[in-house]
Amino acid sequence: MHARRVPTGIALATLAVAVVYVWSAALPVQVAAQEKQQGPAPSVSITAGSAVLMDAVSGRVLFEKEPDKRMAPASITKIMTMLLAMEAMEQGKVSLDDMVVTSEHAMEMGGSQIWLEVGEEMSLADLLKAIAIVSANDASVAVAEHIAGSEEAFVDMMNQRARELGMTGTHFANCHGLPQRDHYTTARDIAIMSRALLRYPKVHEWFTTWIDYVRGGKNILVNTNRLIKSYEGADGLKTGFTEEAGYCLSATAKRGGLRLIAVVLNVADSQLRFKEASALLDFGFRHYAGVEIASQGQVMAQLDVARGVVEKVDIVAKDPLVAVVRRGEEGKVTSEMILPERINAPVQKGQKVGDLIARLEDGTEVARVDLVAAEEVKRGSVFRVLFRATRNMLRALFRVGKD
């Protein structure tokens, strides 16, 4: 069976207006080759000890400063805590309606908190809201214990998930980010786990809430991320501060078809971290554009299915395909599909059958997503397969006779 390359004939000159994003760890794209084709990359002045600007759909890094330097992340740690909570909900292991009982260990957490008392019950939804809005350390531990039984077991899950995401410069020692030996990460790794968390639209409801309440309105929550009020398109993510880590921020914003993640670590003061994150986002939106090739779940083709209960199956894009290019280069993006002539039953829903690739004029690959089967196709019975083969043979003979 030979693969076939199918040019889609897409050369888009307009930006995508809406892209549904589903993200896990990205395969590296050929950034160096693209920059060579497009000329020297623009830059921006940043005082942060470490910084990264990433395209959230493809995972392409648009700017970096000491991106792999291991640093204390402070409360940005909680991005991974929230990611594991959202994944546990997706898997049906927990629910937002769960009532979580506060342990003595959770109650003893210092720093930012909502003053949980031993034995107090609070919904998982309210705890996650408190983590997102006010970076509550006690809520983080309560969530960790609810999901894994203990903070220690949850930290093991955090480190395992970090490895799965390709976060090679990270080791977690707790779920909240207070200073602890061997608790570190990098700006690149923070961008990677931020990208993974952005798979879940629900988190934007919490991250974009400026003021909310818990305990039936008795306690106020005020968001620590001022960018959601001051920066156009900003809808997350997480601030952090300790004396060791300095002021930190993982921010995200979306304009048109382009969503960016800006990470700044070890900044001198709180105001400056927001200023520098804004500068990174401005840099990205000024110099780059997102060209949407396909949305998640978009039907891209049909494939013949041999020996199946049906003869064809729709092929869809597993993830959105957005090509990030320099502004002015949008019309130079093309795409192609790589698909076999046919596939054999049985076919699983979501089974990869090919690739959808975005390229520049010179053939440089800038983005790629899997093409997958939209539905399951079971193997047909012997009678069905023979009937279909006989029917197709007769059709062919009839066409030959007419010719």
Description:
There is one protein chain. This protein has helices at 31-38, 78-90, 104-107, 124-134, 137-148, 151-165, 187-197, 202-207, 227-230, 270-287, 382-402, and strands at 3-7, 50-55, 61-65, 99-101, 121-123, 211-214, 219-222, 234-242, 246-255, 258-267, 288-294, 299-306, 312-317, 321-326, 334-340, 342-344, 352-359, 365-373. With 403 residues, it is of the alpha+beta class. It folds into 2 domains: 3-20 and 295-387, D-Ala-D-Ala carboxypeptidase, C-terminal domain (Peptidoglycan synthesis regulatory factor (PBP3), Domain 2, Sandwich), CATH 2.60.410.10; 41-287, 3-Layer(aba) Sandwich (Beta-lactamase). A 7-stranded mixed beta sheet has the order 1-15-17-18-13-12-16, with no helix packed on it. Strands 3-2-10-9-8 form a 5-stranded antiparallel beta sheet, with helices on both faces. A hairpin with a 5-residue loop joins strand 12 (299-306) and strand 13.
Oligomer: single chain
Rg over C-alpha atoms, rounded to the nearest angstrom: 24 Å
Query: Architecture of the largest domain, according to CATH?
Result: 3-Layer(aba) Sandwich
Q: What average pLDDT do the residues reach?
A: 86
Question: Strand-residue fraction?
Answer: 25-35%
Please state how the strands of the largest beta sheet are arranged side by side.
1-15-17-18-13-12-16
CATH topology of the largest domain: Beta-lactamase
Helix and strand element order: EHEEHEHEHHHHHEEHEEEHEEEEEEEEH
Top-tier CATH class of the largest domain = Alpha Beta
Helix content: 25-40%
Number of domains: 2
Largest sheet: 7 strands, mixed
CATH superfamily of the largest domain: DD-peptidase/beta-lactamase superfamily
Overall geometry: globular
Name the structural class: alpha+beta
Number of helical segments with 4 or more residues:
11
